[in-house]
């Protein structure tokens, strides 16, 4: 393949994550290999997004999901309706932008439980609509990446399109 002459554009480093298999395992655990009902929808890559690696407080009581500070400027500074869409389902909740801690309300627990989120899983939240438009609900398309112990060297990756996480099997 010949590379065309002209200005070069530096491509971002890509971080590949391969699911870990224990010695003697020939396939992924059932939770990761579930088939049709766990179909993932690729995110557009053209809209703003943030990632969250699930910790205990995200997936167990008190079920809290704070929005990272770098993403606050894209969201309203008031309480507003929010919808998380994932795997063909929708979860309605509130975005609490009027607090010092910007977060999703208690209905986040329904999303976490319904999607079987565990510590170490990652969620990518792509803002589809509503960022800053008064009266319009926030809509996030969410992709769940089953982790089970995401390597530390990539846990901080994926905050921008210049530093993507790519899952390969």
TrEMBL record:
Keywords: DNA-binding, Nucleus, Transcription, Transcription regulation. InterPro entries: B3_DNA-bd, DNA-bd_pseudobarrel_sf, REM16-like. This is TF-B3 domain-containing protein. GO terms for cellular component: nucleus. One of its GO terms (molecular function) is DNA binding. SUPFAM superfamilies: DNA-binding pseudobarrel domain. It holds the Pfam family B3. Residues 50-148 form the TF-B3 domain. It is found in: Nucleus.
